[in-house]
# Entry
Amino acid sequence: MRQTPLALVVTLATVVTLAFLLLPIVAIFAHTSPRHLVDQFSNPVVRDAFVVSLKTSLLAQLLIVGFGTPTALLLAMKRFPGHALAVTLVELPLVLPPAVAGIALLAAFGRLGLLGSSLGALGISLPFTQSAVTIAVAYVASPLYIRQAIAAFEATDPNLAAASRTLGAGPVKTFARVVLPQARAGLIAGLALSFARGLGEFGATIMFAGSLQKVTQTLPLAIYAEFDQNFDATLAISGVLILFSVALLVALHLGLTWQRSSSNASASLFGLTSSS
Amino acid sequence: MATLKLERIRVPLRSYELELSLEVASTVALVGPSGAGKTTVLRAVAGLISPDAGRISIDDDVWFDTGTGRNLPPEQRQVGLVFQEYALFPNMTVRQNVNYARGRAADDLLDRFGIAGLASAKPAQLSGGEKQRVALARALAREPIVLLLDEPLSALDSHTKASVRAELQDLLAALEIPVLLVTHDFEDAAALADKVSVIVDGKIRQTGTPGNLVAAPADDFVASFTGANLLDGYAETTPNGHTRIRLSDGTLVATADRAHGQVTLAVYPWDITLAAKPPNDSALNTIHAPIRGVTELGNRVRLSIGPITAEITAESRERLDLKTGQPVYASFKATGTRVVAEHPLDDDGHKHQRQPD
# Structure
């Protein structure tokens, strides 16, 4: 086969792109042996940051799923005046610079903020607490889940929900047994992306929650704090975060391909293609 | 048997308003072209959409009434709705699909529909005919007091269709509840229903037994829908009081109906006789033209000759040795024709626009 100049350029560009993406990842692990990585867990800074990250991330994702799922369902199923505006609002944190999001959260929930005095009256002060980390993460990561969830609900077959209703099932049973199973893959994908984004959150967190070890210092904040003093520790934390992200990505792809191939396999097994 | 009543139902659709009343005891077919509002009627009965006005009841049980504001949600109306594409739950097995309505085992229905062997299969693994049986079993598991069928045969290939149609005929004959089915195919409607309502642009044009509609179509649309040839021409009264219609190619056709001016004449394909020689009987209408095309439909054959289509048995075609391009005499009696539309001329002498079909 004769290579055209164009094919050569395209291949070269692809190789450069992939190498550019891979090289920094390789560099991290070139600097830290797996042994060294494990050793760093005895470092209290790393351990504390890991605990703070895990706690706040899980809590934030719980909030995102709890509030985001009904929101996505409503935006996917109903058209109302201001619908487009609502969808844009949901996507806003995606384009907002994280530092701006942090300042905005301070302006809203800070002591001198919009809701600050009302919260203060209730004896609640949010900034620079672990709750502030959770709020910052939820704010920044939520669009990744909600956008995906809207798409997943929109892709469900309305006739299946209608069939469920005519078969005597109310809205709750219809959602749980007919709508949710159809949207599940999309929801899981959205959750994985949102989790990964939340875990890496830096800008909004440092503005709104600060970087106090054991309280608000998450893994990315610890990387920043240790950068000057202990470069080895920062490499180790980075390694942990990379492993986590890769694991999420692999789980996501495995989960999605598994679901796709299982339905294809059963159809081809019988020499039939799905007609629906 | 109970009676399902739709009284002055009004639903605004994209380009027109659906507005009809309908009474369903036994089996009624709502037939019409796609987009006529057929499925909307089923959805209104099932409670999946709410009409702007009207009343839907079954005997004393009122499901919907804009007069009183009553509007039961779908799960409180005991209907079985079989969707056009069946809408089987893809993540559930055949058994789980059928059990869904009851919340308990429905193996009796699996046996009755001959799908017990498929109980653990997923819908994606089923053929069209099997899917339909599952959909019917699932709808009946609801123990409905009204059964609604949306285009029950349209998703099937022609080979499966004949056997499923026969199965469906047996099932409907055995059911003791009113059945409302919608289809765009008059033949399917005639095969399955006791009464047929023709719906066009959201309004019912004619209701009757399939035989009624064929014998006396109310208008040109109903005539063409039931399979008739439609011939446009100009009707004149002869000195001895008979009506003659001059077709656009100059052929004169006698009809038993009275008419004057621009008309549309319906002639059914099975009322047309074909012959190689001109018929001796001068009272017959005759069209002499070459055969334009031949379509075989099982043991019947449809031939297009000039402006009309004739339907004869495969046997007669064999005997007459009819081939495309060969000139033939097509004849039909004056009593075999119906004037189905008179088009009054407007001031410019142009005829009014016919309803698009």
Residues 158-174 of chain B form the longest helix (17 residues).
